[in-house]
Structure formats: C-alpha cells, structure tokens
C-alpha cells in the first residue's frame, strides 16, 4: 500500500493505494521503453469518487472524477517518464487500486476520437443506472500512430484506412454473489483491465462497428456487482486496446433505506413470504384442494395484470400499489375459484391454469441466451412469439387436464419459494419473471441485454426448486392415481351427459325441453309480467 506522497508504478502492475482529500498522491512511471507510444493510467475505488489528473491542480480538460477513471498519456519523442496525481474527492480514506498499461504504435487508442466528453482523449466508460437498466456510453477510438506524429483524422473518410475499420467488443464480468467487500472488487477488477485478461475472464456480449452508436444497455441487477469493459480491435493490424473498466452494484451504499445491503422492502418480504406459503401448499396439495389451486392461479393472473395497470396509469407509491395488488389478486382468485363450483366452467379454469404454466415456461426460455437475440428486440416479434408459445401449453394438454393441473401446481407453486428467497438473498432466478415484468412496464427495456450470473447460490436454489417441483408433482400423481379423473374432460363430460339423457327416460333431465323451447317459454313469462290483469266477471254476452 501507498498511503501518501509518491506512488512508484511499473507498467502492467497493479498497486493498491489509500487516498485522502488533503494529500494528493503523485503516481510516477519511469524508464518507459521507446516502443511504447501510449500509456493508459487508471484508478478504481468501490463507492467513493476519486480525482485523477495530469496536474496537481485539476482542471476540467485535464482530469476525471469517478469510482472508475483513467487518463491517456500520448508520449512525446524521447519521453521516458509519466506522472499523474490522485486524491479522494470527499473526506475520509479511500481504498483504491491503480495500474498503467502500455500500448504500441499499431494499437488503437481508446477514446482517441472523443467529441462528446471533456477530455481530449477519453478512454472512460460512462455508466448510469436505474432500478430497471444500466446505460453505458463511450467515445470512439482512433488508430494508433508513432511518437511525434500527428494523430490520424477522425472524420477524413470512412474507408479501411480510417478509424471506421475499428470494431468494439463489449464484455461483462460478474463479481461473487452476495459479496460487497472492497477487497473482492479490487481483486476482480484486475481481471477486466488488460486485453488478454478480459478475453479470458469476461463474457462477450456484443460487437459494435463504427457505424453503431457507442451506447449499450443492460438490465439492472441491484445488489449484484458487475464489471463492464470494451476492447477496441483493429482488424488490419490485428491489434487491440482496452478502455477503462467500470463497475456497478445498481444500488447505493450511502442510503439509509433500500441500500445495497437491504434491497427488499418490508412490504415485499411480507407479500412474497405469504405468497410462498400458499404456493408451497399448492405444490403438494393443489389438485386435491381444487378450489385452493384455482384461487392461487387466479391470484397470479389478476395480481400481475392489476400491478401493470396501476403502475402505468397511476403515480402511487410502491407500498400502496403492492397492497392494492394483493387485494386485486384475492378478488381474482375468489372469482376464478367461484366460477368452478357456481358455473362448472372447467374449460375456463383449466385454460387459466395452463396459461400461467405457459407464461412461466416461456419466461424461462427467454431467461436463457435466447432472450438476447437481436430479433427479439422488436416488441412485435417478442410478444407474438411469447404469446404463441404460452398458448401452446393449455392447447397441448387439453386432452389431459389432470396432468396439466398437477404440473402447473407443482412447478408454479414451487417457484414462489424462489421468489421468497430472493427477498432475503440475491438469486438470479428471480429475474425469470422480473425481466418479463420490466418488459411490460418499460417501453425501452427491449434494448437492454438481460444476461445474469449463475453461481453457487443460484445452483443451490435451482436444485431446491427442482426438488420441490419434482416432489410435488410425484406426490400428487401417486395420490391421484386411484382416484376418479378430476377435473373431468369437458368434451367427454358433455358427450356422456348427452348419451345418458337420450337413453334413460327415467332420468328427469331426459324430459328437459330443448334449449330453444326453454328460451321461448322464458320470453313468454317475461311478456306476461308486463301485461295488465283482466277484471273478474263474465265478459261474453248472455244468450237470450
């Protein structure tokens, strides 16, 4: 560690340094080789901003401020020493790590064609986040050149001899789940700073050409540390250079409420814990307690659509919306459960059950890398595909409603346990349905890449989900093996009743008039209700 004063650096070597506001640290590199034309110097801290500059007195055009910032030093002929200055922006000590990376004359220069930001050459990635998505933007690169030469023009042409031949590969790296410590970030950000290390450890998300806008969107993962970086590649010389890596947790460490250590609100925990209790009961006993199962499925459908409606239409607070959603879910569940024993609408009930299972199944498909395919960024293509596949589930199981109901209650019921766990411990499996909700609520979420980590916690919770679902389905199938099929198949029930009425004349239902005659009698009854009563007495003339 370097605490204050002078920080001696070696090219390509990391050094940890403690910074404060009052005593700037002078970072120096000596004995730079003549084959090096550019040195990229960068510093990283977890949550406190750091000031990095070329001069002791920082200016707008010669410094950068942030948790992940860097500067590009274009070396002059015969130059062998580079100097930068570091300090913390606010009071208090800040743990940071610094590195300087050399590049040669044929290597592209990150941010060398900057026209948007303050620095003349800006290698930084600028990151903004919300609870929904993360926005990253950066300045285009320029071609490399020798010491003392003029830099290639950024707008002289679009041919293969200009910067327009450059390609940009965007990489993503996930920190260990549920670990917010500084030392973890410091140790892992080193893996995303140099070209070869980035390729070895990062996940390549996409490639941009110079024709594309240097703007990228990712889905937010509050509480999960993520590091992003961009490698610019020159296909003519087959050389590459890395921008300054940037990290985010998509949350605030400083907030007293809803900070990175306690993301879920109390109302969310209560809602999903109670929901998981009902789901766990449905997982093992949903088919036996048919009306409870229908209440559970009706609750899901009505709560989902009501939450989407009030979020888009009103500006109510989150807690109020969640309470109203719970009420709407209860009402919807009661209506669906009541529609069975009041009206016998088996077909409607099984359609809703199958639709819930279908929506979860399609959400799982788009949770995979399939969801990041460019074709699904079009909302029409996405929603047509999503709806069509979801509707296939109730259609495929129309001939075996008992199997459909047991599968739906086992799989959907057990998934509610995953949602409840996500309120207390981070797990990527919650984003199976959360990303669908984000897509419905936000018009521009289609541009975001939705890749998530899959680490030890996720593997354990996935195993718990699979075990619960398999156990619930197996228990219900064994229990119902010797029982009369329920719910009955609608067409077979109608056919059986029709045959029974046509053959059994002792059955009172055999003598029920046809539907047309019953409607006619009912209309006559209504007509008589509006007619005036006739007075009593003889109305015909007496015969003489």
Automatic annotation (TrEMBL):
Species whose genome carries this gene: Manacus vitellinus (golden-collared manakin)
UniProt GO cellular component terms: plasma membrane
Domain TM7S3/TM198-like per the UniProt entry, residue ranges: 273-477
Domain of life: Eukaryota
UniProt entry keywords in alphabetical sequence: Membrane, Transmembrane, Transmembrane helix
Pfam families: Ig_TM7SF3_N (PF25992), TM7S3_TM198 (PF13886)
Cited InterPro entries: TM7S3/TM198-like_dom (IPR025256), TM7SF3 (IPR042502)
Membrane-related topology note: Multi-pass membrane protein
Name of protein: Transmembrane 7 superfamily member 3
A GO biological process held by the record: negative regulation of programmed cell death
The UniProt record lists the keyword Transmembrane helix: yes
Annotated compartments: Membrane
Residue spans crossing the bilayer: 270-287, 294-314, 320-341, 348-368, 380-400, 412-434
